[in-house]
Write a structure and sequence with these properties.
The protein has 3 helices and 3 strands. The chain is of the alpha+beta class and 86 residues long. The mean pLDDT is 82.
Length: 86
Amino acid sequence: MGRRARQRAGVHIGYYSSSHGFYIRGKVIEADYGTSHARVFIGSENFSSTSLNRNRELGLITGSQAVMSSIASTFAADYRGSKQWP
């Protein structure tokens, strides 16, 4: 669904800009991949009290096989090109 169609459906779309810039770093946790109850979390949260309780963060949990497969493939490619930590 395109932006205009979402707006017609009642979705409010807003934009934010800052002269200081802003960034978001993503984290991924993939659990039980290959099982019937596999899930993946994709989000910006750190495992800290500030991140979980005070910051504005975003996260998504899904059981989508397509999403999990894509993430698993990306990690496998990353690991193939990595070097073992001493």
